[in-house]
Write a structure and sequence with these properties.
This protein is of the alpha+beta class and 752 residues long. Helix content is 47%, strand content 22%. The protein has a six-stranded antiparallel sheet with strand order 7-6-13-12-11-10.
């Protein structure tokens, strides 16, 4: 039998070598343990922070979506139209003020106000307060500048009067295709920060320049994630976006990008005093993740402190050291048995407490989520059931635990779920995402969105099921499908009519090939036939809205709410007027003209051509630029024929740029003593030099078969000649073709 003394004697002879090897082994073990522990801890921290980031983004998006459509709805109200059309009417302004105050109180917005075309506030919900916006000019705000040109605006800034942070939604107020002003809804974002209280997580929301305007850390507000250039700083100061705040960058002394896209940053925080720091300033390390919110220009950033990971690494190193020492002390276990036992008991207690704390935290997260969460064991039996799931399925957790998950799903969907749960690990996808029927305790079914994900706990497979109730979405889809079917029926009927009309037009073109006026009229009707799909698209939204308002009016009449029903009927009337406006330019375009030159305003020509070509331009994503102040320029021409020429040139430009990624059309003017030159340039491949002299010949075309007869440019050339003008073409030196129209200027009284 080997004695303890026989083992100790060789160790004493080589104790220096053994000690050195023990130290080296200890360093390798603890170093590897620290590396693995830190890697696992950082992955877990990234996963938790990512989930927190998604939850916060969802909360912020829901708050913004609550007010997103409000400005466009307010822009149709007659009281706001009256206030803008009658700026000198005190009664109109007073009615608008009272209405905006009522809207603000109803939707719990911060402020709602109305601005004229110059950016001056004509009416506001705070008209009776000392900080009233009435009379203030906000034309310098980007949300006004976006809306006044016809686009919905979004913007964040400090209020110039209240100095409170706010998010602004703006929308143009349009009457008869004329923008009279802008309506703005401001919401207060101060309350958002109170929804987050985790001391180990910091939430930042920045604008497109990286300026922090929402933060759970007070000292980080109005700081920047990166130093701003002098040009950007000057632009922000001139916009008064943040008042007189000095925008200093956060003191990030180190950045390190990780493989998952997140960053490890070291941030100097002046509020935390570190006794070990010589200058009294602590540098804290955070895991930073960010994501842009769609359609808002906001970037949401989460900073998760790595102190928890450092503690985990420290604990892991301590554990590895303990095991190492325990193995080393095994030789002398007779002397240290009691001590080792006590250490093991203490470690077991720490593990138990950590597991209990972690389980409690996870349970709190599950119970407070907005989705139904259900955890299953490897056999598909229910282990936990959060409160949202109890509300959806009307089961108590105690009553349904240990039941198979399939009782919560309709019969037709059980096979898919069960196949996923029982599949082999190597064959099972990471997640199963389906739309299914949920089965409540009383047997009633309701539509749900179901996600089954796999997780591994303590080496055993588990499943987590996420449930979303999509009843409202399904009802909306049914209504939308019904409206789409009705519209398709109308489109088919209209298409048949247009087909018959096109066949008749082709017959007339054949019969009257040598008649100039009939060719011109036929070409216009052919353009109208091509525009039919765009017009049907434009009529889709009003038709859907009319259906919704009619259904609501019927419901309100049934409840005796005649005033609300009357308001819906008024909205229906406004939508029918909008449909009439959509169709009117086509009726004007299709009529025959007298052919006699008369003073024609280029603004009217521009409006008519854009009304006809709007659908094609939008569908192809083409940009078109017109000169400014066209309302002061008149030429001697025929309104309908000149409008037809512009439509034909724009249509040809679009066809020439079909293979071009960015489609642009530029229209420019050059005024001479007695004539005006109009240039229409596209950014296509241009016209071959050998064919420049033939583009105005009848039936000559470079288009593919079925895209035209080659009469458009010939007719346009003849129209301009009959108007005592000239139409020519050339290639631009940088690419693309330029069509040049020269017409006599008209002298109109009152116009210089």
């Amino acid at each position: 039998m080997i004695s303890l003394g026989s083992l100790i004697q060789p160790w004493r002879k080589h104790r220096i070598l053994v000690s050195v090897m023990a130290i080296i082994a200890y360093a390798l073990i603890t170093g590897q343990t620290a590396s693995l522990s830190r890697s696992q801890g950082m992955d877990a921290l990234q996963s938790r922070a990512h989930a927190d980031l998604n939850r916060y983004i969802l909360s912020l998006q829901q708050k913004l979506d609550r007010y997103n459509k409000l400005p466009s709805l307010l822009s149709t109200h007659s009281l706001l139209h009256d206030a803008l059309k009658n700026p000198d009417s005190a009664a109109a302004r007073s009615a608008a003020n009272v209405y905006l105050e009522y809207v603000t109180n109803t939707v719990e917005a911060a402020d709602v106000y109305l601005m004229d075309k110059e950016g001056t506030t004509a009416a506001a919900s705070n008209w009776a307060e000392p900080r009233s916006f009435v009379g203030q000019n906000y034309s310098f705000r980007p949300y006004f500048q976006d809306a006044i040109v016809g686009k919905p605006g979004r913007y964040f800034a400090l209020g110039t009067m209240s100095q409170r942070r706010g998010y602004y939604f703006s929308y143009p107020v349009t009457v008869r295709d004329e923008i009279l002003g802008v309506v703005v809804v401001k919401i207060d974002l101060n309350e958002i920060e109170s929804d987050w209280s985790d001391p180990n997580r910091h939430i930042l929301v920045t604008d497109e320049d990286g300026v922090v305007f929402i933060s759970t850390e007070e000292d980080w507000k109005f700081r920047t994630l990166h130093p701003l250039s002098p040009q950007d700083m000057q632009r922000i100061v001139e916009s008064l976006r943040y008042g007189d705040r000095e925008l200093h960058a956060l003191e990030i002394v180190e950045r390190k990008r990780r493989d998952d896209g997140s960053q490890l940053i070291t941030l100097i925080d002046g509020k935390r005093i570190d006794n070990a720091a010589l200058d009294g300033i602590a540098a804290t390390q955070y895991l930073m993740q960010s994501r842009m919110m769609a359609d808002s220009g906001l970037n949401v950033v989460i900073l998760a402190s790595t102190r928890e990971v450092s503690r985990q690494v420290f604990n892991a190193v301590i554990l590895a050291s303990f095991v190492y020492v325990a193995v080393g002390l095994l030789v002398m276990f007779l002397m240290a048995r009691d001590r080792i036992k006590r250490e093991r008991e203490r470690f077991k207690q720490q593990r138990t407490e950590a597991l209990e704390e972690n389980e409690a935290r996870i349970r709190a997260i599950i119970d407070n989520t907005q989705a139904g969460l259900i955890t299953l064991d490897a056999q598909g039996r229910i282990e936990s059931f959060n409160t949202t799931a109890e509300r959806l399925f009307r089961y108590d957790e105690e009553n349904i635990r240990e039941q198979y998950f399939s009782i919560l799903v309709g019969y037709q969907d059980r096979r898919v779920c069960w196949d996923h749960i029982t599949a082999a690990d190597e064959e099972r996808p990471q997640e199963l995402f389906i739309e299914a029927s949920g089965c409540r305790q009383d047997g009633s079914l309701f539509p749900i969105e179901l996600v089954i994900g796999q997780m591994r706990v303590a080496g055993v497979n588990r499943f987590i099921v996420t449930i979303h109730d999509i009843t409202e979405r399904k009802l909306y889809e049914q209504e939308l499908q019904q409206a789409r079917d009705e519209l398709e029926s109308r489109v088919e009927s209209r298409t048949a009519d247009l087909t018959r009309a096109n066949e008749k037009l082709l017959e007339e073109v054949t019969q009257h090939r040598n008649t100039q006026n009939e060719l011109i009229q036929t070409a216009k009707l052919a353009v109208l036939g091509q525009m039919s799909a765009g017009i049907n698209h434009e009529l889709n939204q009003p038709l859907t809205a009319i259906r919704a308002y009619a259904d609501n009016a019927r419901a309100f009449l049934g409840m005796g709410k005649t005033e609300v029903a009357a308001s819906n009927l008024d909205e229906i009337g406004g939508l029918t007027e909008r449909m009439a406006k959509i169709i009117h330019p086509l009726k004007e375009f299709s009529r025959k003209s007298s052919g006699q030159p008369e003073p024609v305003c280029l603004q009217a020509v521009r409006d008519g051509a854009m009304s006809i070509m709007y659908g094609r331009l939008s569908k192809q994503g083409a940009e078109i630029s017109w000169p400014e102040d066209l309302s002061r320029i008149y030429v001697m021409a025929d309104m309908v024929r000149l409008e037809q020429v512009m439509v034909n040139l724009i249509s040809n430009a679009l066809q020439a740029m079909e293979e071009v990624e960015r489609k642009r059309i530029e229209i420019s003017l050059q005024q001479q003593e007695e004539s005006l030159i109009i240039r229409v340039r596209d950014y296509g491949p241009g016209i071959p030099s050998s064919e420049l002299g033939r583009v105005f010949e009848p039936f000559f075309t470079t288009k593919q078969a079925g895209q035209g007869l080659g009469l458009g440019l010939s007719i346009s050339h003849r129209i301009i000649e009959n108007l005592n003008g000239r139409l020519s073409v050339e290639n631009h030196r940088d690419g693309g073709a330029i069509f040049i129209i020269e017409l006599p200027l008209a002298q109109v009284a009152g116009i210089e």
